[in-house]
Amino acid sequence: MQQHVFLELSDITVRYGDVEALSGVGVEICRGEIVGVIGENGAGKTTLLNIIAGVFAPEGGSMRVDGQAYRPRTPADADRLGIVSVMNTPNLVGTLSVAENVMHDRYPRNRLGMIDWRRLFGECRRLFQELDIPIDPSIPADRLGMREKRLVELVRAYHSGAQLVLLDEPDLSREDERFPTTLNLLRRVTARGGSVLVTTHRIQTILEIADRVTILDNGRVRLTERSAALDQEAVLKLLDDPRKDVYPKLRALAGKPVLRLEALATRGGLNSLSLEVRGGEILGIAALTGDQRMWLPNALYGLDEVISGEIRLHGQRMRIPDPAAAVRLGIGYLSEDRVAWGLQSGFAVPENITLSNLGKIRVRGLLRRREELRVARGYVRRFNIRVRSLSDKVSTLSTGNQQKVLLSRWLFSNCRILILEEPTKNIDGPSRNEIYNFMNAYVQRGGTLLIASSDIDEMVGMCDRVLAFRAGAPRVFARPEMTKSAVFSYIAGKPQRD
Amino acid sequence: MLLNLNADLYSAEKRQIGRVAANLVNEGEAVFIGSGSTCLCLARELPDMRAIVVTNSLHVAAVTASKRQVSTVLLGGDVELADGLLASRGMYAEENIRNMFVDKAFLSAQGASIAVGYTMNSREQAALYKRVIERAAEVVMLMDYSKFGRRTLVPLAPLTAFRRVVSNNQIDEKYREYYVENGIKLYTSP
Questions:
Q1: Cα–Cα distance for residue pair A52/A166, rounded to 1 Å
Q2: A98, A138 in Cβ contact below 8 A?
Q3: Cβ <8 Å between A248 and B185
Q4: Which residues 6+ apart lie within 8 Å of A170 measured at CB?
Q5: Residue B8 touches partner A, C-beta closer than 8 Å
Q6: What would you report as the CA-atom Rg of chain B, rounded to the nearest whole angstrom?
Q7: Residue A365's pLDDT is what?
Q8: Any residues with CB less than 8 A from the CB of A203 and at least 6 apart, and which?
Q9: What pLDDT score does A25 carry?
């Protein structure tokens, strides 16, 4: 059977700050169809509905309604096309009667253009009877319970002739006495050619009522499949896939305190941060925006001005006025922008490795060159840097191999604290694995790593603790409470758009 | 002397693997340690911590028994010499392990290939390891890089059977990719 696609989403990407809430999501909803969206907290379900409902616009991708480009700026734009959302928090006018809420802006009017109250209540009463809803339409909406309010909202959507009903996490359970009514309403919407997109935690229920389901995982579509082809166990298995944890984390050594911050405040934005970081520890820095994540690294690398408080290294109070001072104190920094901040792309591998510590190679002339080559060969072997020859310019290497060259440079410099910004962004899977193992090797030798990353999975996977910022306010998470959802809900707070 | 524990016959690569693997043993755990040379490196690197080591290797047992806080259980059976190391195997050893359950089993095989999986030289050793796998909550494979792409007589399990593998940085790119794509935690050390 040829099905008519009502709504089509392709490649939708949404970011909160620079953390991706949805990445490249594609969903199709046909007329007359109920589509279920399944996912854990923070998987992106509500964000997906909000995008369709016009609450905010995606950063990338496109939507089509009935084949026409669909770019809602406000929920009203969605409403005009018959796209109606029934979200988790009911949206009824409490002081108005249930009937007024249901009839919304479709009040029956008399010949004089005035609202015909008798017809309004009569129509609503008939509608409720037909739908078997035991609610008195004349009482104010305020007096309804949460579930009743949601049901009334659903009736309103149905009555308004909605083409697509977006239903967010209804407590859809067979045990609920209103379940048959709710299901009946959804079926009525689809029977007349409308569609329903419903999200929930209740996997069993959704598999029973939806024609197809899409499983969202971490902002990506894991699977779209006919419900009949799935069961709860299969879905749970997909969501609970241990293969998601691919981080080769080793237990941290209990090292000595290396870095101590006391009520540190910086021009950039740090506000009275106190923290102690040990040797052998990996500390992650999480925030929605790159600038918050870089507050502490900038202060440590001499790129920001300390206003008050202090930085202590190995117990001694330090002033770090510029990057050269940071490097002298044994602090290294590998920027996300590899080329602007360090990689000498026109030079070969050996020069790029020894650059951080030229003093370490004391000899001059030809001998110097030989020494440089020897050092480089060691790192190329150790980190499996793939070069055809040592004289290859680093610009010809893959991103992953360039990253390994820079890591080698900081290792050669003997830095004791290494700051990595977005260490694996745009890097392929195998190279990521190598970089994670590099991190292990670095901290197992007593080094201290700071990782500022937008990839929360990576930080939860590799770090011992995560320093998280929400609107500038820091909070430290440690294993085992340091889960992705804990960190993400802290930094995101209530997702807000300006 | 067969039980010369001081000889350092093993490559730096195997010692590195032993060091990483030792980090994966947690306080209070019961672990099985196999009888290969890489497994012996793990036994040597294991800190003196509260743990139970079950092994079929006389060499591993001798090493861990000298650590005060580690309890050592040696599986009995037919003792044979393989690559200079003494290990028990056969019916008795297999019956022994049936009465135990360990948190982790650290095993090594002689070969690993994508097509055939992990392979062993000895049928008896493979038979014992299969029993161990049944009695372990998790299996960690210790495989130095030189074993990849090699195939020996007796298959043990496919490469995707165990969630953690400890190897070296020099591991062939193809295998690193294969493990990463299959969601297996690959630990590599220089």
A1: 8
A2: yes
A3: yes
A4: A86, A150, A182, A198, A200
A5: no
A6: 15
A7: 63
A8: A38, A232, A235, A236
A9: 95
Q: What was the pLDDT predicted at A3?
A: 76
The proportion of chain A whose per-residue pLDDT surpasses 90, expressed as a percent, equals 43
* Averaged pLDDT of chain A: 86
Q: What distance in Å separates the CA atoms of residue A64 and residue A4, rounded to the nearest whole number?
A: 13
The predicted model scores a pTM of 0.76
Distance of alpha carbon A330 from alpha carbon A258, whole angstroms: 11
In the predicted structure, residue A498 carries a pLDDT above the cut 50: no
Would an 8 Å CB–CB cutoff place A370 in contact with chain B? no
- The answer to whether the beta carbons of residues A482 and A463 sit under 8 Å apart is yes
From the candidates B169, B177, B179, which should be mutated to test the interface with A, based on the most A CB atoms within 10 A?
A: B169
Instruction: Write the residue in B23, B177, B185 that is nearest to A251 by C-beta.
Output: B23
Could you tell me which of B75, B77, B23 has the C-alpha nearest to residue B51?
Answer: B23
Average pLDDT over residues B103-118: 97
**A345-349, B12-16, B167-171, range with the lowest pLDDT:** A345-349
For residue range A22-69, what is the model confidence (pLDDT) as tens digits?
Answer: 999 999 999 999 999 988 766 788 889 999 999 889 999 999 999 999
- B189 vs A246: CB contact, 8 Å cut-off? no
What is the three-class DSSP state of A148? helix
Full 3-state SS string of A188-246: HHHHCCCEEEEEECCHHHHHHHCCEEEEEECCEEEEEEEHHHCCHHHHHHHHCCHHHCC
Report the residue from A243, A248, A382 with minimal CB separation from B169.
A382
- Report the alpha-carbon distance of residue A165 to residue A187 in Å, rounded: 11
Q: Which are the contacts of B81, defined by CB distance < 8 A and separation ≥ 6?
A: B2
Cα–Cα dist B170/A455, whole Å: 27
Please tell me which residue of chain B has the smallest CA distance to A244.
B183
Mutation for A interface: B20, B178, B185, most A CBs within 10 A: B185
The residue whose two tokens read 């001998």 is A367
**Residue B10: its pLDDT value, please?**
72
Residue with tokens 């320093």: A467
Task: Write the CB contacts of B39 (distance below 8 Å, at least 6 apart in sequence).
Answer: B33, B55, B57, B60, B106, B107, B108, B142
Give yes or no for residue A455 having a pLDDT over 90: no
Tokens of A475: 């909070």
Beta strands in chain B (DSSP E): 30-33, 51-55, 70-74, 78-82, 85-89, 102-107, 111-113, 117-120, 136-142, 154-157, 164-168, 185-189
- Joined together, the tokens standing for residue A297 give 């690294």
Who among B23, B169, B183 is closest to A246 (CB)? Answer: B183
- The confidence score (pLDDT) of residue A364 equals 61
* B32/B54 Cα distance (integer angstroms): 5
A497 interfacial to chain B (CB closer than 8 Å)? no
Chain B environment of A245 (Cβ under 8 Å): 183, 185
Distance from the Cα of A362 to chain B's closest Cα (Å) equals 26
Supply the pLDDT for residue B9. Answer: 59
Res A497: pLDDT: 38
Collapsing DSSP to helix, strand or coil, A82 comes out as: coil
